[in-house]
Design a protein that fits this description.
The protein is of the alpha+beta class. Helix content is 30%, strand content 25%. It is built from 3 helices and 5 strands. Strands 1-2-3-5-4 form a 5-stranded antiparallel sheet, covered by helices on one side. The chain is globular.
Length: 148
């Protein structure tokens, strides 16, 4: 039987919970960026993941951070050749894409996510928890044949 090898440190999913407050956005971006760097992903893919994550976090904060103890849980993981990010919040209200006029200062978050991501959607909250999870995936580029 071949020996089992532990996952490299960066290969494990990143999961963390922060208060549902806009002041935590920089912390979220920093933690996701650091995790993606450990995964050695191309910079343009990492940039897109961080931007889409920031948009989902902003949506969660805007629409759920009403109570002082509300939190948002983020999960970043590699699955089947893609990066998947899941943002869980306590609100059961699903996000809806909106049409906004050119002068609007907000309302474009899901449109940005849909342009950046290969897929996105909504999932129920984890069993026993309130709210929902909003997720997106971005495919990892594959190396051309013959490339190590």
């Amino acid at each position: 039987m071949p020996p089992t090898r532990p996952h490299p440190p960066g290969d494990s999913p990143l999961r963390f919970t922060v208060p549902a407050h806009a002041s935590r956005a920089a912390q979220v971006r920093r933690r996701v960026t650091e995790h993606l760097a450990r995964l050695a992903l191309p910079e343009d893919l990492s940039d897109s993941v961080v931007l889409a994550t920031d948009e989902l976090f902003a949506n969660a904060v805007t629409h759920t951070g009403i109570r002082v103890h509300d939190t948002v849980t983020l999960t970043v993981e590699l699955i089947r050749g893609a990066v998947r990010v899941m943002v869980a919040d306590p609100s059961p209200v699903p996000p809806l894409p909106r049409t906004v006029d050119d002068g609007a200062e907000s309302g474009r978050g899901l449109a940005i996510v849909s342009v950046l991501a290969d897929a996105w959607g909504i999932a129920p909250a984890e069993p026993g928890k309130p709210g929902k999870r909003v997720w997106f995936t971005l495919a990892r580029p594959t190396a051309p044949e013959g490339t190590p």
